[in-house]
From TrEMBL, chain A:
UniProt keywords, alphabetically: Cell membrane, Membrane, Transmembrane, Transmembrane helix, Transport
Organism of derivation: Arthrobacter psychrolactophilus
UniProt keyword Ligase present: no
Spans annotated as Disordered: 1-20
Name used for this protein in its record: Biotin transporter
Amino acid sequence: MTSSRPTNETLATTKKPSDSVDFTPARRRWGAMDLSLIAVFAALMAASIAVPGINVGVLGVPITLQTLVVALCGLVLGFGRGTAAVSLYILLGLIGLPIFSGFRAGPAVLASPSAGYIVGFIFGAAVIGLLARFALRSRWRAGALFGAAMVGTIVVHSFGIVGFLIKGMALPAAIAADVIYLPGDVIKNVLAVVIALSLHRAFPDLLVRRRK
Amino acid sequence: MRNAGNNCIVLDRAAVTVEAADPRSQETKTILAPVSLTLTEQRIAIIGANGSGKSTLLRLLNGLVLPSSGTVQVNGNSTQRDVSAVRRSVGFVFTDPLSQLVMPTPQEDIELSLRRQKLSKAERRHKATAILADYGLAHLAESSIYELSGGERQLTALATVLAVAPDILVLDEPSTLLDLRNTRLLMERLDALPQQIIMSTHNLDLAARFDRILVIDCGQLVFDGEPDRGIARYRELAG
Amino acid sequence: MVAGYVPGESIVHRTRLGLKALLLLLVAVLCLASPALSPEFSVGITTATLILVVIGHVVAGLGWQRLWRAVRLMLIFLILIAAYQWWQFGPLIAWQVIAAIVATVLASNVLTSTTPVDTLLDGLAALVRPLRRFGADPERFSLTVALMLRSIPYVIGAFADVRDAARARGLERNLVARSLPVVISTVAYARATGDALAARGLGDPEPPEAR
């Protein structure tokens, strides 16, 4: 984090050294701003399970914000930092912080039937972050970002179903147990896109520039 | 303290612009018009309205913001080329100490500051305890930063910055969140410091005691000189 | 944040973290790998492991209520799994699968309930340290962990503030009004923290020659 000149890339990619325009996570080392964004988004993941869900009425069940934050990690932080934020959250949950849904904690979660979702969060955020790069350059930005988020949702749900199967559940039961979360996740993806686009306006210097 | 009294900050036509909020436009917005300054005085105040560009000017001084054009040099180091050397010599105190204090307790936060010096964990702990004692904060060492009063927080933030012995101290409205008594306490601490101090403030009584005043208005440096005349100019601008 | 740690003086509490982690690994291996040998053998091993884990739970003074709470959270899934396994492979295998899940979940609950968070974090840092030679940076990693822990209360506070504000404006059921301000203030907070770290010369990667 040494420059305040906004460069392109994902929404919150800001203040990066001007000599590294290409965002290649393995090569470019993260600066203080990157670490801070990763840490705070991981905290957002953790906090989202500690706050009561929002009762919107249409679904009959309160909406929890966890999968919304997974989508935001990808859309706002991009591939490398978004994946890192979700991974950091999961790592700290695994070593024993009660930050998984239902205040669960520890490696127990990996043995539980819903383990697939936890692992899926990492890959979901990664896929969304990867696709967001392209979506942001598209002419239909909102639609493309929503598409990216939906692909991520499919990845998370696939992992969830595989997790059920590994634990010995039948495929129809696994799918049935999974799809009840799908409508909520679609709504949350719309919300994630609205939030991502609003962040542009709230932080003009985080702005995305079109490639020349 | 490496070279008290011999600091020299040079801004050469340094300007800051940002790209417009609409990604489709190619326009840029000027935050700070080109400014050339040589800052050598021990106590320099920057005054101006909210959003006038004071913070941006201060952030140029330690490389938190890089000039879009022109250069900023601190004791010969360019903020663009050698930002870590610049940050070693320039300590920065923010308006809100809570954004500055990272660890849960003052003790741990000072240990964090000391990480830049290659010390062992035990040495860091020992040194942090000594620093807190120096600044009269020993009794708060293990308190949560959320339990401290605003004044205690700002003094802690100051101590974490001074822990690494910078040559220059830059403060961005450090007294804005403080009451009168704590403002006075903070200023007493600052007065006693050997470092060069560059501080922005809305408190004109404080500014009046400085050696030199810069008045910023709408991203332009509109006055540079003696405190009395600078304050008069600022009052004029405020209408 | 709900603390997972239950203070106590039991022998489980006093056991070193490394040993507890090793035992946990052993439980997982016994329960999940034993079916590869023979079904009858694995049923016996898994049942014995489960009994030992429950004894450990009781010895640690964690109480039956805590045990039940851990099981209750996954009860629906356990029933679905048990039904399918019973139908496919019979009651013995169904029992083995369920007992394996419950044993590993309980064992890791025992570990996290009897170890303070500080110790867990130190353990994590110790795990990362050997990775230094592969380019990992333990200092920056622990800084990020510390930043995350410090930010959780802030973000929870932001959720509460925003909920109150939305309620005051009659927007309690409006998803955007409930979530957007939280994310905006969270990003603002992250940026202020990032600036403060950079200003203190922390968190930025050090140039190789400085090492």
